[in-house]
Structure formats: C-alpha cells, structure tokens
UniProtKB/TrEMBL annotation:
Residues 196-388 form the GMPS ATP-PPase domain. Homodimer. It catalyses: XMP + L-glutamine + ATP + H2O = GMP + L-glutamate + AMP + diphosphate + 2 H(+). It comes from Eubacterium plexicaudatum ASF492. Catalyzes the synthesis of GMP from XMP. It holds the Pfam family tRNA_Me_trans. This is GMP synthase [glutamine-hydrolyzing]. The gene is guaA. Gene3D superfamilies: 3.30.300.10, 3.40.50.880, HUPs (3.40.50.620).
Amino acid sequence: MSQEKVIVLDFGGQYNQLIARRVRECNVYCEVHPYYISLEEIKQMNPKGIIFTGGPNSAYLEQSPTCRKEIFELGIPILGICYGSQLMAHLLGGSVKTAPVSEYGKTEVTIRTESRLFTGVSADTVCWMSHTDYIETPPQGFQITGHTPVCPVAAMECAERKLYATQFHPEVMHTVEGQKMLSNFVFHICGCTGDWKMDSFVENAVEEIRKKVGSGKVLCALSGGVDSSVAAVILSKAVGKQLTCVFVDHGLLRKNEGDEVEAVFGPDGPYDLNFIRVNAQERFYKKLEGVTEPEKKRKIIGEEFIRVFEEEAKKIGAVDFLVQGTIYPDVIESGLGKSATIKSHHNVGGLPDYVDFKEIVEPLRLLFKDEVRQAGRELGIPEYLVSRQPFPGPGLGIRIIGEVTAEKVKIVQNADAIYREEIANAGLDKEISQYFAALTNMRSVGVMGDERTYDYAVALRAVTTTDFMTAECAEIPFAVLQKVMNRVVNEVKGVNRVVYDLSSKPPGTIEFE
Ligand code: XMP
C-alpha cells in the first residue's frame, strides 16, 4: 500500500481500534499493530505518524509492554496516549509514578493553545481521563502543554522532535475536542493530506484477497445481513466466480427477505458469483415442532443451519477459504487474536469449524458497523440492505414465544412488515436502533364484527441503543402505535390484540428469547 498511513501501536488499551477509526474519519488510512513489531517493519510501512495507545500497565515496570527507544529517533511524529504518554516519558528520562490522586472520567484540562496539537481547541477543555499512574516530570526538552489541578502533565510535547503526548484519551467521545486534536496531529504534525476514502479500503481489500486466495475456491455463508453482504460483494469483486455464496432460508426470515436477498445476489443480480439458495423451511419447522424452551430453540436452529451449510459445502467440494463477515465489535467480543476461531453461536453464520477449510477470510475485521455500511454503499449494494437493522441469526424463531409453527411465522412476518412500513412512513426508522414485531404466546378473547375471537397478541418492540448491551424503549408517538395496531388487527389474521413493550435492557433483553 503506497498511500499515506498512520499506524497505531497497541499497548493493550481498550480503545485502540477506536483511535484508528477516528484517524480514518480524517480520511487518513490507519491500522493497528501490536506494540512489539520491529523498527524495521515500521520503517517498511513508512507511516506518516505513529500513535501509542493506552494500556493497563505501569510504564516503569520491567515486565510492561515497551518499545525500542530508537523509535523516537526515526523522525516520524509520535502521539502517546495515556499509557503511551507515560511510556514516552519513561523511555526518554522523565519520571512516571503512581499518582497521588487517580483521575477517572470527564476532567477539565487546561491546555496551551499555542501547541500544534491544540490548535483551535479551547484553553479549558473537557477530556476523558482514566489513569492511576501519571507523569510527574517530563523528559528533558519537553514542554508541559496541559495540566489539571491534580495532574501536572496532562499533555506534553517536544515539537522539534515531533513527539506529543496526552494523559487523557482524545479518541473517546467524552473528550469534547478530541477529534480536533487528532485531526491536528494527523494534518498539522504528520502532514497528511487526507486523500484516503472508504473506496480505497475496498480496493486494498480486493487486492489483498486476490493475493491470498490465488485460484482457490471460496465459500461464503450469506445471511442477507449487512456484514455478510458487504463481505460477499468484496469477495466477489476480488475473485468472481471462485466464490460461492450459500444462503440458507430457514423459514424464519422477515417477510420477503429471502427473495430480496436472492434478487441482489442471485443470477439476476449485479454480481458475478455463484449463488445457492437452500429453501430449508420445512426442515427447520420439523425440528422445532413441540419445542418451547428458548435456548433449545436457538440450539436447534443453529445446529440445523450448520448441517444444511455443511451439506452444501460438501456438494461444492474442495473449498479452500471460508468468508466470515466478522466486524471489529465481534472481534472484541470473541477476544483479540482469535481470528481463526469461528464464532459458534453469535449468528446463524456460526459455522462449523470442522468443515475442512484452509483459511478464513475476514475482510471487515477492522471496521465498525457504520464503516461497513459506508463500504457497502461504495460497493453499490442497495440502500435497503446496507441500512438494515440488526437481525438475529435464529431469526423469527426467537421472536415467536413458545413453539414455532409455519402459521405463527406468517403472523409475525405480516405484523412485522406493517410495523416496519409505518415506522418508515413516520420517518422514525433512522432514529430507532432496532424495532420489530414479536408474537406472544398469549391468546385472549376479543370481538370482531360481532363475533367472539380467541386470537394471539402481537408485541411491538422498539429500542434506542448505541451498543446493544443496554437499551431504552423508544418513545414512538401514540398515533403511530395506534395506526400500527389498527392495521395489524385488521390485516393480519389470527391477531386481535397489539401491545407495546416498554421494557428497557436490563431488565429485559432486546429480543424476547
Ligand atoms: P438481546 O436480545 O441479547 O440482543 O438484547 C442484543 C442484540 O443482539 C441481537 N441478537 C443476535 N444476533 N445472533 C445474532 O446475530 C443471535 O443469536 C442473536 N441474539 C440476539 C439482537 O437482535 C440485538 O440486536
């Protein structure tokens, strides 16, 4: 890759990929490397700048992650963040100690606005701190450029050597002017021009995949979700017909979803790939007959998916590579450095690790969800696929409380389609993180056209969340809810009640099972 790039050296901090992502937001390519890569490797990459991440260790302890002092002599601008700042201070002769007062959270920092790092930043600015050690005195030749009442060196620099350091984390949102600081580093200190765009990411990914895959056969389990769709299109661009996408329709998809996926990836779609749609609805319904326990349902769906996928893989034969749409948050969840471990239950894409693949290809493993969507747009994937809300691997199976039957699937599909349509009509679809209809296992008495009914209650769910680990119930205008209720009871046979789920997570979860 000949384009300008900034590299992040990972010293074990929590936010290392976030730093890379913030730099990419400046249109500068950025990637994360372990702290122990050699100076030779760094020189070969020819970065315009280096950022040291935070980390949980103490820079002055012998066993802590460190780097060669010569890195500071390369003439490449360096920004040390938190542990990275302490390491810089320690290696260059400053003093790092346990702080008498640790700082955690939003902290007002007084900075010297003459610093290039702080151009355009307010003199008193709110920053995110999280440290128990601190720099007591900076190394010789360094100037203190920021402090708090209890932290004498909240920022320091040696401008002639292009070495900068902040005790706080400019990459997190709570550092109000953090993005400005990173942008100052990247443009005014490293001299980047910002010519990188997501399409360069795609081009590079395509090139790398071609090199890796050669003339091998590649298999992709396509769910129709954003991640696997984007991964499949990148692969298709890279290796064309060497790629086969297997799309298992387990009969638990949203209304028309199977056909929508086929329209894009099937023979009439724009991509030159082999596409296999397996209509396995009956097979799944049969396995789910009489099963009501949520975990058991999930297990059955996951396992059956694997069986179907495996059968297809065998039919294709001699597949060398398996594509996974793993994105960065998945990497965090499964533990860094476990790239070859196939997730077994997070998604229906939790594939068998015993099918004989030479290697896994994960073109999206460095990206965050919204970056994946951006890449999808660059690739010309239709907006309705790119902006899809998350959909669980077990699909409607976990949105039908109790036993799953073909009839119940139809009810929930129809109710859900109406709900989604009305949310979009009300212009709320971009504001709500996830929303769907579920079928409760409750039937109750109602009256319709003077007749007694004894039908199901549909539950509407809508949440706002950023991380899906916690969530709040979305405040949907009552008129919208009422319209959905009217349409559902009138248009969906078998439903005579609609309820709105007010629970947050915790104590509820987003899905019902
Ligand atoms: P919960 O219900 O745990 O869901 O609050 C959190 C988020 O995860 C999604 N989800 C899944 N996604 N496979 C997936 O790929 C699954 O088995 C699964 N279960 C839940 C859910 O839709 C929500 O976005």
